Please model this.
Amino acid sequence: MALIPIAVTLLALLGSAAVGDALRCNCTNCKSDPECETDGACMASIYYEKGKEEHVRMCIKRNDLVPPGQPFYCLSAEGLMNTHCCYQDYCNSIDLKVPVPRTAGDWTETGSSWGPVELVAVIAGPVFLLCVLLMVGVFLFQYHQRAYSHRQRLEVEDPSCDHLYLAKDKTLQDLIYDMSTSGSGSGLPLFVQRTVARTIVLQEIIGKGRFGEVWRGKWRGGDVAVKIFSSREERSWFREAEIYQTIMLRHENILGFIAADNKDNGTWTQLWLVSDYHEHGSLFDYLNRYSVSIESMIKLALSAASGLAHLHMEILGTQGKPGIAHRDLKSKNILVKKNGTCAIADLGLAVRHESITDTIDIAPNQRVGTKRYMAPEVLDETINMKHFDSFKCADIYALGLVYWEIARRCNAGGIHDEYQLPYYDLVPSDPSIEEMRKVVCDQKLRPSIPNWWQSYESLRVMGKIMRECWYANGAARLTALRIKKTLSQLSVEEDVKM
Ligand SMILES: *[C@@H]1O[C@H](CO)[C@@H](O)[C@H](O)[C@H]1NC(C)=O
Model:
């Protein structure tokens, strides 16, 4: 193999340079000493060898930390090895998650005759060579780009080398900011998304749903949320990624989308959707856990309305956005950010409005979404699906229910109710459409608004908004923009700092 000499050279380099004095690391392959010293980084890695998991801890010299920002020695290889570099004494003492052994077979073969250091070198060597070649390609390509148009997008197929495209020390926030201000849609170019997705290290599962699982992952030291769809759900994955990448969708109260990736490993396709991570989780979880002050209630309600207003709004022009209706708004699909505001998530069922042709971008199937939150016209199927505004009105009805969930948890004068789902007292858990229809359409019942809310201005206003979100006639309901304005006013009166 022609690549072995390169690996050996790298090894020699690694061995010959003088040992620095700053950093002490754990070492698994230093002859007598369980520790080593370096001027660079501590590294820990875990991989499979002969079907057994192997741990390596070692020192990496500063000179070997190339390229800066994302050194090859510190890269994980998808499904083969998890690697972590760090820069404090004995920080590589940690236990890493084992990689999912997708191609464990191949790995056992090569792994058996190589020690851990050689293994790293053997991986880094070819990758380095490949990347040098690719770099030449990149320069040629960029030259070509400048000479022609900026519109073309490149999709680099080999993920191990895409990262040359990523500016070495950029964080995701920088990258996304660059992308969204350069006006090329709402997100990173495809090949960058791919690179990001493939260098995320999954940490823990934080949720499960009908589509698959949600994980917390790490990318360049920051937390991200990864929604992993089962391969049956390819269409949901595609649709959600498509909606999130609608031009100009980015908004502080809509979940920040980072990347979509479909990794095909030959046997099955793994579908990823990467987004910002919010440690509070959903509004549903949040309200179950905490009661909220009047100020927090207004913050939550106003931010949710701002997010929905932005989603609904059509902005005309080349830098515009289509109107979007969510169609599955509920407290479980709204996230709570660290600063106590909301971010609307789960856009998988959303529809977009093409105003030029006055059509909706996908054939909206009958009754999707969560039955408990379905508007009366959706339950009894009288909704006019040709008319885009009908979907917006149905969202507003659901927003009213979410407001009711929030307001019940509002702690005013020492009183607040326990958390409940809307209609908890009228329908069983997991109600059928028929059960919902009886209550909402036939009996025309709505969640009850306690009398004592009248004694507090904020709760009185919230109660009034809810009633005006719940009219049987969709067209009579408030708009998201109207609600946003009313709540902005309230927030000024109540001196709420947003
Ligand atoms: C790493 O080194 C420190 C200091 O010698 C030691 O206390 C710790 O147990 C080591 N960790 C592992 C996993 O070997």
Observations:
- The longest helix spans residues 116-147.
